[in-house]
Amino acid sequence: MKSKDYRNKYNRHLIHPWSDFSFLGKDDSSTVIVKGDGVYIYDAEGNKLLDGPAGMWCMQTGYGRKEIADAVATQIMELGYACSFSVINNKEVELAERIAAHTPGDLNRIFFTTGGSTAVDSALRLCQLANNIKGQSYRKHIITRDKAYHGSTFLAASVTGKERDKSAMDTIQDSIHFLTAPCYFYHSEFASEEEFCDFLVEELESKIQEIGPENIMCFIAEPILASGGVIVPPKGYNYRCWQIVKKYDITYIADEVVTGFGRLGHWFSSEDEFGVIPDIIIFAKGVTSGYIPLGGYAVSDKLLEGFIGENADGCTYLNGYTWSGNPVACAAGLASWDIIEKEGLLEHVKEIAPYFQQQLRTLKDIALVGDVRGAGLMAAVEMTSTADNEADLLEKDFVVGEMVDAYCQQFGLVVRPFINICIISPPLIITKPQIDELVGILRKGLELTLADLRGQGVCVN
Prior knowledge:
Blueprint: H1 3-13, E1 33-37, E2 40-43, E3 48-51, H2 54-57, H3 66-78, H4 90-102, E4 107-113, H5 116-133, E5 141-145, H6 154-158, E6 176-179, H7 193-211, E7 216-221, H8 237-247, E8 251-255, H9 270-274, E9 280-283, E10 295-300, H10 301-305, H11 327-342, H12 345-361, E11 369-375, E12 378-383, H13 390-411, E13 413-414, E14 417-418, E15 421-424, H14 432-455
Parallel strand pairs: 3-13, 5-6, 5-7, 7-8, 8-9
Antiparallel strand pairs: 1-2, 2-3, 4-10, 9-10, 11-12, 12-15, 14-15
C-alpha cells in the first residue's frame, strides 16, 4: 500500500495529537512511516529518512533492537499483564530498583504510569494529597514557566506554558503562575546572560513572596525546556532556582521526561548536570527507548514521611492506571537499560555531544538562522521571522518551518519543526558520519527555503 492510500484511510478514520481541526480529513502530504532501523526510518515508498528528533525524543537505542523485541515477546508469553492495584509483578520491582539506584538524594520510591503526561498529573496529585493530609489544603498554587511543556492531560496542560499553541481548550488558571522563559536569545534588553539570570532568579523569589510561600504547592521545571524550543537556561539558573525554592520549603519537581535516560549523557541530569536534588523527578519517553508506553516519577523519602504511616490519617492515594507497572513495558525498560549499559551509550553521548553541537552551530552562517542552541544530544535551530507585522507572525513562522521540513525530507531527514524551530534530538547511537549527514541535509533545507523566500520577495537579512 502506498502513502496516498494510507493517507486516504487516515483522513477518514484518525485524529492525531495536535490536529488542526480546520484541516481535519484533508491531509495530503504527511509522511507515512512503515519501518525503522537504527537511526533511520522508511516511508511507504521505501525512502530512507534519518530520524532527527528520535521519534519524539524517545528512541534512545534506535529502531529494530532485537534485544527489546525478544524481551517483550518473552514477557508476553510469561506474563502479559498484572494489575498493580492488587498484585506485584517481578519486572516492575526490578525496573524500580534500577531507577532508584540512579536517582539523586533519597528519591528511592517509584510510581509507574503510562507516559509523561500521566506522570506529571500523578506527581501533582501526590502533592495535593500531601498538603491535604497535613492540613495545608490552602497550598494549591503552582509556579511554572512560559514555554514549558509538561503534557496534555488536564493538570499537565494547565502547567504548560507554550503560548503559541492556539487552543480553545480549558485549563486551570487561577492557581497557576508562569515565569519568564529562561532563554537569553529572546531578551536582548539584558547586557549579559549573567544579568538575565539574576533577573530570572529575582523574579522567582518575588513571585513566591507575592503569592505567599505558605500557599504554594510546588515549582515544576524541565532542566532544559524541550518542546518549548530546547531552551538551555543560563549557567547556574537551575541551581539558584532550586536554592530559592528550598529556602521557602516548597516542593521542587524536575520534569526529566526528555533529559532523563541518556539525552544529556546521564540517567538523570538534575544532580549530575545542574547540582539539583529535586523532591520529585518525572520520567517517561527514553525509559523504554520509545518501544512501549511507560512513565512515572521518583519521590524522596523525606517528602513521603510527612504523610505516610501514622501521618496518613487513613487517606488513600486514589491515583493509578490500568497499565501502571505493566510487566511488558517494564521488560522493555529493562532491556533498553541493558543496551545502554552494554554499549556504553551514556559515555558515547558525552563524547559525541560536543561534535553534534559544534556542527549544528555551523548553520548560523545562513541568513535564515537566528539561533542554534542545545546541550547533549538535543538542539534547536530557530529561524528568523519573515513576517512584516505581528498579525502574520505565527502563520508565516509555521510556513517557514514546514518548508524546511519538506526540503529536508526530500534529501532524507526528518526535523520535526515546532513552528519556526527545527528540533534535533537523534537516537543516542548516532555516529559522527551520521551527524555530518544530518547537518548537511539540514543546511540544504535551510538554504533552499531561504532561496524560495527571497524569490517570493520576502526580506531575510
